[in-house]
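Q: What changes when EPZ is included in the input?
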Amino acid sequence: MDALVVTKANKLSGKIKLKGAKNSILPIIAACVLTSDEVLIRDCPKLSDISDMLGIMQSIGAKVQVNGDDITICCRQINPHTIDRGLMSKIRSSIFILGPLLARCGEANIFMPGGCEIGKRPIDLHLDGLRKLGVVVDEECAEENCGIVCKGTPKGGIVTLKYPSVGATENLMMAGALSNGQTTIYGCAKEPEIVDLAAFLNTIGARVYGAGSNLIVIDGKRCLHGARYKPITDRIAAGTYMAAAAVSGGDIYIEGAIGDHMDATVYKFRAAGAHIIEEQRGIRVYCDNRLKAIKQTVTLPYPGFPTDMQPILVAALATAKGKSVVTETLFENRFRFAYQLERMGADIVLDGDNTAIIKGQRLHGADVYAQDLRGGAALTVAALAADGITLINGVEHIDRGYESLENELNSLGANISRINKTD
Ligand code: EPZ
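A: The predicted holo structure follows.
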């Protein structure tokens, strides 16, 4: 198991270039099942979630080639019954394969997806939505350990999501893109990654309308074709570097950051005292004083403050002057990292299981454990501001969503090394 050894940073500075967004690329990889032509996806970071998703694609017969940051996928022959159960249960995004498999093959044998343990993460909205599109879903099999058996080609219909689930919206979009009928989804998620998936689907010949609003209509096509596609950049990675600059009193330029995708995040860091200048090709962030507390932050579906930025903002507020309150409304177990921050001297009180009361402190180095992706990123941000040296165990969690967080931060002047801990 690897660990990061982080020394307190002194005013990060310089330029960092963003790559494609993990949460765009993962559904786009799954969407390649919808065509038997070759698809090229540009600008992909080397993340373990992406390599696991590619492994799932290969387990059902896809041909995959990775050339630097470019991924080529060809789904000429697909077998919906051979999905790799181990990989499926490792990552949340494995569930995205269901809609495309049903649209392409009319059947699928899947297993419960995995992912960061930030909550129960059910898939009822995915399965109920597919049932509304004419798919027969047999979950009883799950008890007998043979997975969830789905039969039927989605034939269009109307789905009303009781919650704007990102994954369920994406699965249903893909199920509708290659079908005989029209699919209407009310109550959709509106994240930039949804808009990006719709743009990809339309690039391979689908007809998806309304992405970014709470109503998406898809006119199904019976055949889709190949394409070359460059996904949007990663707004959560951008927010992570923004926080790193803010806690270290630095001045950085995040090339490729899309301000329009980050309004809520930019608003919060400006409220905490960071200076943020949005330009055509990126965002400059600098901070010449200690951050200020932010009275109240509540995570919400887009365009609200993103849950994936919550741990990272809490880490920054743990060093700020004053008292902040942060409430998490999407996931029921997303504050575990706070106990690790307390080992670094943070003053965080959890009120119930979804509100953190943070009183900014001077942090000190400690041995801490990353337990999920964004919690690990939060510990790294906090370690940049902590006196002394911090050892962050469980780097495999961080590697799920950041190509090499230590190299990126070191390019801005941080002092982080990766060690292999044999114990
Ligand atoms: C996506 O997860 C992202 N993952 C998450 O990012 C992100 O935190 C989340 O959206 C919210 O923005 C990927 O895109 C791969 P949801 P997803 O379905 O699709 C409940 C990261 O760090 N729900 O919008 O799983 C669910 O329990 C990851 O990059 C149901 O009840 O999120 C949660 O409370 C972490 N039934 C809420 O909806 C369902 O069938 C939001 O989940 C599905 C979801």
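Observations recorded in class: The two ends are 8 Å apart (CA to CA).
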